[in-house]
Amino acid sequence: KSTGGLKDAKVLFVIGGPGSGKGTQCAKIVEKYGFCHLSSGDLLRAEVQSESDRGKRLNEIMEKGELVPLDEVLALLRDAMEKKVSEGVKCFLIDGYPRELEQGERFEKEVAGCTGVLYFEVSDDTMIQRLLERGKTSGRVDDNEETIKKRLETFHNQTKPLIDHYKDKSNIIKAEGTVDEIFTEVQKYMDSKKW
Ligand code: B4P
Known about the structure:
about 200 residues; binds BIS(adenosine)-5'-tetraphosphate; alpha/beta; five-stranded parallel beta sheet; Rossmann fold; globular
């Protein structure tokens, strides 16, 4: 399948466990560096909102804390990126993707190469606390104790091996502190690269 102008895109993968602060830090990166932020989770939730049969299937998987099928999430990302590239966007923050080795391989083969990886490292306890806090108001089907436990398992079993796979491109950010403390570390990385 043709990737159009996508092969010239600069792509920063943003990886971390559930509640590690990916979306939060991406919003700050966009504000300062003007990247286009695409969150796989947000794209999936938008699909669920449409109340299509596909959306219902996706919602059931997310509610279980499992990964949705690779082809679904890859297609959503590629479509969103193609649209942005046609509007002249070049630099992308791909947040929450890849979540397993095959996702990374397929993306790099079929969409665009990866320029760098930001990995937010946080303890399980911190992730659980943040997600339970968010769950008080988020209305998300996956911000409850039982699903959080499964999401952490999915993260440790399927996503963590990616860190080793991308170790040459990875920048590990210790992400236990406040949003601004973490962003100070993120800026060091962003400023060290020529985008
Ligand atoms: P996501 O939407 O990616 O959900 P997430 O892991 O919780 O990340 P999010 O970005 O929302 O949270 P953040 O850490 O910023 O995925 C949801 C589900 O979608 C997955 O379980 C899966 O089923 C599916 N899915 C998504 N991508 C997929 C893929 N590639 N393949 C297959 N399936 C996929 O923030 C969390 C909370 O912490 C917020 O409330 C925030 O305010 C707070 N917070 C952040 N930083 C903080 C800090 N420093 N201090 C205190 N609180 C902080």
